[in-house]
């Protein structure tokens, strides 16, 4: 799967009940496991002993988990629960018919685009297992093999911060347009300028 070395292949099926049976989940989430997922299979284990890539400081193993779907929809809450309950880094390969959509858990679930199973492949940066995970997660979340200046977690956190700042900016600008009291209008203007400064600083550092 995904053009990974044959030495990483596992092919071990995991019953869905192993997740929603022993974890505390809502009725809706339990139903999502039942209705949305056909099966879970550990397809590949990427680690030093299966690839020869040096161990990392933060990451020691990346498991590729195939999630066979019952419909062309990725159940993100299900993936998040599975990722949070597992000590390893997980790459989800969500398959439906002859298509696959990759997903990884960072500060939240990042989901790539649908691709043909035959065309889907990954590049492993062979510096260390830390680099392997950063490269894999970057390919899913950003379509590249990573940044030289920031980890994928740092990039994802910056994006989340940017989104929050932009939403706050839009609300503050709207309040400023409606405000009639001059002192308050000026204060809102100052807030807008500060938000724009913070946004520009994050964008410049990306």
From TrEMBL:
It holds the Pfam family DUF4391. Keywords: Coiled coil. Residues 155-205 form a coiled coil. It comes from the Bacteria. This is DUF4391 domain-containing protein. It comes from Ellagibacter isourolithinifaciens.
